[in-house]
Design brief:
12 strands; globular; seven-stranded mixed beta sheet; single chain; Aspartate Aminotransferase, domain 1; about 40% helix; Aspartate Aminotransferase, domain 2; 2 domains; alpha/beta
Length: about 400
């Protein structure tokens, strides 16, 4: 699809990257094979050396996976994309492909809990160190730079408080020192935000979330210029945390409806956030689309809408927050997000339960905080389900 840049996102989501076989299938084909057959020993040698393009072995080349990579790259406005087995493997591959022992990362202190664990514990064992700073304070990022700093890593909006980092400002600071900037775009997807257009060098996705949209499979991706993604590909070719063909096929189907789902879920979330903000049992709501959000003005310049994640603090602590969760009959009690089914979780005891209490406090994650990933159910039903538990606080 050489003319892909001329098409709108709705068209790219259903057409970009498609490769038809000799059978002329309309839907994307699912290639369930571990290896590929060559016409001759000489061709096999050329394929393995990279002299000739073509599929070699499913650990690092598969037509279904390639279609997913091309489609997501088109939506992000990226030159290239490398798909991985999960969002966390995408982050790991990005870091290990571009950093080495002795290198340093500056990262937001409001990252997803597993990302904090990866940087603080697993990568630290390799000699790659990380300094965590407030996502919303560019001066703190600049002050944390060392001679060995090689990467800025951030989520925006953050999980779970939806803090908005200024991608343009951080990219300017980093690029002045030759530092790469990677943005986890899981919450917004390319439908609401395009970090590469704002100055980021690489974009990371947990395709498990909105890209799938049905809570079916795991997947991840790294998007960016070929010269940077090529290093990630080399890592995956050897280490192997690659996306399966079946999962890629499912994710291709998810991309087809991504824009419709994200826009509808975001509109639903905006209404729910406004309702929660007016509720007497809610102490605070975190949602970029609300004027009360600290980075509301910045969010309007970076995102098309506030997104579909709403976090809020109930009046009280863990017992009250758990009470709201336990009285839900419609909302799914699960830590996953991006599904068309609305989900609710208590971050302090789930997604961020493995990080230290001090780290949670620094990230602003209190015991009364709940995170909702808003789906496509009727607004009145969502409100009634939440009000059941909220009404009992202080009763």
């Amino acid at each position: 699809m050489s003319e892909a840049t001329n098409y709108q996102p709705e068209t790219l989501a259903v057409r970009a990257g498609q490769q038809r076989s000799q059978f002329g299938e309309h839907a994307e084909a699912l290639y369930l094979t571990s290896s590929f057959v060559f016409e001759s020993a000489a061709q096999a040698a050329r394929r393995f050396s990279g002299e000739e393009e073509g599929n070699v072995y499913a650990r690092f080349s598969n037509p279904t996976v390639s279609m997913f990579e091309e489609r997501l790259a088109a939506l992000e406005g990226a030159e290239d994309c490398v798909a991985t087995a999960s969002g966390m493997s995408a982050i790991m591959a990005l870091v290990l492909a571009h950093l080495k022992q002795g290198d340093h990362i500056v990262a937001s202190n409001s990252l997803f809990g597993a990302t904090v664990q990866l940087f603080s514990n697993i990568l630290a064992r390799t000699g790659i160190t990380t300094s965590f700073v407030p996502a919303t304070d560019p001066a703190a990022w600049a002050a944390a730079i060392r001679p060995e700093t090689r990467l800025f890593f951030l989520e925006t909006p953050s999980n779970p408080l939806t803090e908005i980092a200024d991608i343009r400002a951080l990219a300017a600071i980093a690029h002045e020192r030759g530092i790469l900037v990677a943005v986890d775009n899981c919450f917004c997807t390319p439908i609401l935000q395009k970090p590469l257009a704002l100055g980021a060098d690489l974009v990371v996705h947990s395709a498990t979330k909105y890209i799938d949209g049905q809570g079916r499979v795991l997947g991840g991706a790294v998007c960016g210029p070929k010269k940077l993604t090529e290093e990630v590909f080399k890592y995956l070719r050897t280490a192997g945390p690659t996306l399966s063909a079946f999962n890629a096929w499912v994710l291709l189907k998810g991309l087809e409806t991504l824009q419709l789902r994200v826009e509808a879920q975001s509109a639903n979330a905006a209404r729910l956030a406004a309702w929660l903000e007016a509720h007497p049992k809610v102490a605070r709501v975190y949602y970029p689309g609300l004027a009360s959000h600290p980075q509301h003005a910045l969010a309007k310049t970076q995102q098309k809408s506030g997104g579909a994640i709403v976090s809020f603090e109930v009046r009280g602590g863990r017992p009250e927050a758990w009470g709201v969760v336990d009285h839900c009959r419609l909302l799914s009690i699960t830590a996953n997000l991006g599904d068309v089914k609305t989900t609710i979780t208590h971050p302090a005891s789930t997604t961020h339960g493995r990080i230290s209490p001090e780290a949670r406090a620094a990230a602003g994650i209190g015991e009364g905080l709940l995170r909702i990933a808003v789906g496509l159910e009727a607004q009145a039903d969502l409100q009634a389900d939440l009000d059941r538990g909220l009404s009992l606080i202080g009763a």
